[in-house]
Amino acid sequence: MIRVFIKERRSWILLFVVLQLLALLIAYLDPAVPLSSIGYYIFLSSVIFFIFFVIRYHREIHFFKELEEREQDLDVTSLPEANRPFEAIVEKNITEPIETLQQTSSSLHAQMEQEKDDLLAWIHEVKTPLTAMHLIIDRIEDRQLQTQLTHEWLRVHLLLDQQLHQKRMPFIENDLYVEKVEVEPLLFSEINMLRSWCMQKGIGFDVDVAAVTVLSDAKWLGFIIRQLLTNAVKYSKDGSEITITSSEQNGQTTLSISDHGRGIDSRDLPRIFDKGFTSTSQHENKAATGMGLYLARKAASPLRISIDVQSKLGHGSTFTLTFPKANEFIEIQGV
């Protein structure tokens, strides 16, 4: 045990010896310094250092004994290899748990990736019977029943679509295909998907987006518009109208979707894009998931689309998409 302690304190001993040799060298080179006085100084300092060394040894010996007795764990004093330098003991004691944690992390990451792939595969599989179900619903003669079933089918379809895009979101930049997209056909395609729901609520659309073309990804832009339209229809009053307009501002194209629904409380506006946030004024609405606007802004970020909202409680809301300038977008993408 004494050998381990001396090894760990060899820097102390070396420093002390160097200082004594330095004192002897000064006495040898300078005749004015008596050699006997230096010898007396060295003797006293050596005695003091020896006493200090013995005291420190007895105080710290318990620590080195614990190194031998304790089992390896995350504690840096837990390795039993007392015959090794303390730095090596600490290094090994830290490295091995870190490697174990890294292996566990890699295993969990691979497991999560597999679960994500399984979920994506399941969603794609479910789309087949959903398509068949929609064809069956179209053949139902009872119009009221058909409308009700179509509405429920649409809800399932939108939830699956939202889940699919949510799982793809971390890899959205690998999935982007930026091109010139005509907004009007994309809008009518999304509106047509919500047709049965709109008919059930008696909601109409006033669309004025004459020949607007933007630089974006058609699939993800459609997803963003789908979330905004779904929210507009969901919270619009029966028999009301949703207005969709476009404009040019400072060389940038904007697309606005306005509804005349219940609106958003001013205290909720800063939080509506937060994950899972629904409402503080309409908290009893159990159908809301708080994911639509969160995913819309998440998808808009890599496309450099900003989403702004203006709303007044009880008077509806207006969501505005502002698209980047073409040159700005190309510079950001490094084209």
From TrEMBL:
It is an enzyme of class 2 (transferase). This is histidine kinase. GO terms for molecular function: ATP binding; phosphoprotein phosphatase activity; phosphorelay sensor kinase activity. Residues 121-327 form the Histidine kinase domain. SUPFAM superfamilies: ATPase domain of HSP90 chaperone/DNA topoisomerase II/histidine kinase. Keywords: ATP-binding, Cell membrane, Kinase, Membrane, Nucleotide-binding, Phosphoprotein, Transferase, Transmembrane, Transmembrane helix, Two-component regulatory system. The chain crosses the membrane at residues 12-29, 35-55. Its EC number is 2.7.13.3. InterPro entries: BphY/WalK/GraS-like, HATPase_C_sf, HATPase_dom, His_kinase_dom, HisK_dim/P_dom, Sig_transdc_His_kin-like_C. GO terms for cellular component: plasma membrane. Pfam families: HATPase_c. The keyword Zinc does not apply. The gene is bceS. It comes from the Bacteria. CDD domains: HisKA.
